[in-house]
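Consider the following assembly input.
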Amino acid sequence: MAATDAPATPEELKERIEAGIPGATAAVTGDGHHFNAVVSAAAFTGLSRIAQHRLVYDVFGGEVGGRIHALSIQTKATASETENIA
Amino acid sequence: MSDDVSTQIHEAIESAITENPVILFMKGTPDQPMCGFSARTVAILQSVGTPFAAVNILPDPRIRQELSTISNWPTIPQLFVDGEFVGGCDIVTEMYESGELQEALGVEAGENGANGAPTPEPAAQEPAPLSIENRL
């Protein structure tokens, strides 16, 4: 899944976060080494901040600190989509 | 052989976390942070006014490796309060802005030392023998 040597891009991180966390939407900025991700997901509901951030880090495993030099995260728990259906 | 050293480092980290009420694992030292995220976290702790122990993880890569197995957290810095992992730079920043950090540290937001107790001098806590680089 991970491109091995190619530099990471904000687009790649966004896609992988959204694929890895059900129902997540992510806005990612970065320069190839340092990234900032703002992630919203219903899956965060009821979790501590630490647990929310771990879900995001877990998408990338050992790449954080390596290929992805730094990943700054802000998380938001969103209401389940079903609650918004009239 | 190296496994023994890793085990020693692992145990030293656990002791340091247990023995220091507030301890920050960082890149560099509070006086000379070697990374912007570590620098920001130090600045926040200093702003709150709580004495804290600091461990520089840079001298030996095994410090970071063992720390991450304890905290299950991939990035540096890492803050522990009362033996519990609190978070890295992002979470510490959010908690500072919301006042949760001051609460966790037992400090009134914006009123350091307002409870009548003298502001404690940074206690001469020895943050465990992880390496000679370590100091408050």
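The mean pLDDT of chain A is 89. Ask yourself how this observation constrains the way the partners meet.
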